[in-house]
Amino acid sequence: MSTNSAAMGNSGKVSGAVDHFDYVIVGSGAAGAILANRLSEDGKTTVCLLEAGPSDWHPFLHIPAGFIKTLFNPAFTWQFQTEAGPMTNGRRIPVPQGRTLGGSTSVNGLVYNRGQHADFDGWAALGNDGWSFADVLPYFKRMEKRIGGEDQYRGRNGELPVTDIDWIHPLCEAFIKGATGLGMPRNPDYNGADQAGVGYFQRTIDNGWRMSTARTFLTPVKSRLNLTIRTNARATRVLLEQKRAVGVEYVLGNNAGNLRRVMARREVILSCGAINTPRLLQLSGIGNAGHLKAAGIEVQHHLPGVGEHLSDHYSIRLVARVKNCVTINELARGPRLALQIARWMLKKPSIMALSPSLVHYFWKSRPDLDAPDLQGVFAPASYREGYVGMLDKYPGITAGVWQHRPESLGYVRVQSNDPFADPVIEPNYLQHENDRRVLIDGARLARKLLQTPELAPYVEQETLPGVAIDSDDELLDFARRYGVSSYHLNGTARMGPATDAMAVVDSQLRVVGLQGLRIADSSVMPKMPSANVCATTMMIGDKASDLIRGK
């Protein structure tokens, strides 16, 4: 067999037996775990799932509050950073991605948020047949185990529990009442008929535990004889024969000398995420020919859209010091923390079983808009420098906000043929003028929500950015200095019709111009959904399983 040798700058001799499967899936995250479950459910089709990270053995990967310990831990996440630039005040922004069974679903903020119906109708309008809201709703419902909401929109019998919060805090109630006083409706199900309004987030938490895709889709089926799961297996390139993907080369651990191959009789499916999927394609010689040659990679297939169209939610958080109330900042220390742990062990409501954001608000930056263009979050907690994981020492609350559909677009590009080198990640945050305007309006809305009469008995003073920061220029400067990624990266292998020269996959998620290679993860999204991208990525994985099986 003649396979490409485009990418192995550390080229070594393949060791071990070369195994053959019907399907090889790279990445066990939001989409990959679901694909592995669905494609192997007939008991006959053989599936190999490769995960670069370890198994989800650590307790912090299963305790919801454990995200504080795992999100920035290189043992379980890729510690990627964006390029520094003037719109982020010369800062490199962390964009960690999950690197363990379950991928980012094992380390993320646990929010379940589909987005607006119009998001998916917009995908279909771009020429992506089969991706309208009516087309994708059955897949959202199929994977969901939801109590509450309307049957028209919610699933009851799926693998993924989606639950309501059971820990009600007076500051959350005051925030919601204040928001309704400003004209926002209280919305009990933003994943139902309409997204607009304020209320509590739905979470992938059940009985006090994180419900990652590893726990819900892999653990129940890992004994299937036709499903092979290999952890610490880092893919270094897709093997091509002519214009067909025939397998994957990978290393065990970070040992470049321990090179292995696994072959696919039917298809290779990449579910590595918006950074690692374009990186693996480029390392395999699939991408923009000019970029590949500059990186010292032999071109196997010129596909200019690979790595382009990167999009992300750039968020800012306003913080206030509070009085007359105990916040999570105090509950997470000393004897109070011990009490919260005891409550969690007794299956009682506890901060150990919370998502970092408790309350949502979806609203408009300008009153003349037809639908919300902002997503906001609220929590009775505050974090130093705006980063989750470092609680303030004083009682605090946080109101965060970001623009639903940023128009600034960036890219992911490898710099060399070294599969262990991080790629260049450039989201171009706030490059587009409209993104700056909407975020400034969002900051003003968040501030207004922290100044309602309902919160007045509790709010002592705004500490970040502080009420003295008020002009548009000052608020933009604040956003440049303190804004962070929401970790919602997408679009780097976008779906599009044959008329779209920058499309990487077609509406069947097949890589354009190649056979036997598909992509199913957030990288295929043609436009940013009005939401955290995890739920939509899971839907993509579930729908992909039917596309692959011809259902």
Account of the 3D structure:
The protein is α+β, with helices and mostly antiparallel strands and 551 residues long. It has a domain at 63-92 and 156-212 and 312-410 and 428-485: Glucose Oxidase, domain 3 (2-Layer Sandwich). Helix content is 23%, strand content 22%. It has 13 helices and 26 strands. Strands 1, 2, 11, 12, 13, 14 and 26 form a 7-stranded mixed beta sheet that branches. Strands 7, 18, 19, 20, 21, 24 and 25 form a 7-stranded antiparallel beta sheet that branches. Strands 5-6-8 form a 3-stranded mixed beta sheet. Strand 12 (233-241) and strand 13 form a beta hairpin. Helix 1 runs parallel beside helix 13 and helix 4 packs across helix 13 (534-549). It is globular, with a radius of gyration of 23 Å. 56% of the residues are buried.
Percent of residues in helices comes to 10-25%
Radius of gyration: 23 Å
Q: Any guess at the CATH architecture of one domain?
A: 2-Layer Sandwich
Q: How many DSSP helices?
A: 13
CATH superfamily of one domain: Glucose Oxidase, domain 3
In round numbers, the mean pLDDT is 95
Multimer state: single chain
Number of strands: 26
Please summarize the sheet with the most strands: 7 strands, mixed
The backbone outline, from C-alpha atoms, is: globular
Poorly predicted runs: 1-11
List keywords for this structure.
551 residues; alpha+beta; Glucose Oxidase, domain 3; 7-stranded mixed sheet; 7-stranded antiparallel sheet; 13 helices; 26 strands; disordered N terminus
